[in-house]
Amino acid sequence: xxxxxxxxxxxxxxxxVLERFTVKxxxxxxxxxxxxxTNKGTMKDFASKLQTQQxxxxxxxxxxxxxxxxxxxxxxDGVLSMKSxxxxxxxxxxxxxxxxxxxxxxQLFSVMKNGFGGDGGLxxxxxxxxxxxxxxxxxxxxxxxxxxxxQWFAGDIKPENVYAKFVNGKEGHLEKAIVAQYKAHxxxxxxxxxxxxxxxxxx
Length: 203
What we know:
Helix content: 55-70%
Structural class: mainly alpha
Mean pLDDT: 90
Radius of gyration: 22 Å
Strand content: under 5%
Order of helices and strands: HHHHHHHHHHHH
Number of domains: 2
Low-confidence stretches: none
């Protein structure tokens, strides 16, 4: 779909291409298409220009990183967001936003956590994502889960408190998996392995 619009409007008016493409397919679809196109030699430079226009357009409209998360409909993708091109776009926007607004800096992790409804929402999503059988999704989900657990541990959250604090007291299969996985992380942090070295010269 992207190449058709390039052929029709390029090189006459780059802005027209982006506007028409967005009206027809929506911001999220355009963002995904541009990520793919920026990796293709034949249209890489032009697609990069359009992507920059899109990102700077959001900034000019004073979109927060959270606004862009919603605009890209990342939450609707659920576990698939863990390998979505949309998150690549969001990451680029976070970097752009932070560069222009150093007093209001944010992090991709925080934006994702808030977008999925806070600690509990993100925990449910990444725990489910680790079960889908897709190595790429599982690896990314594990990284997000690790970040979440590090925050919980730093906040002195005990495993038994996770139910009440983050998942509204619900104790379904998914919630139990969250607690079990956090407990493993918690126990590992509380009882780090100690490696001993035996000097062979003293044997």
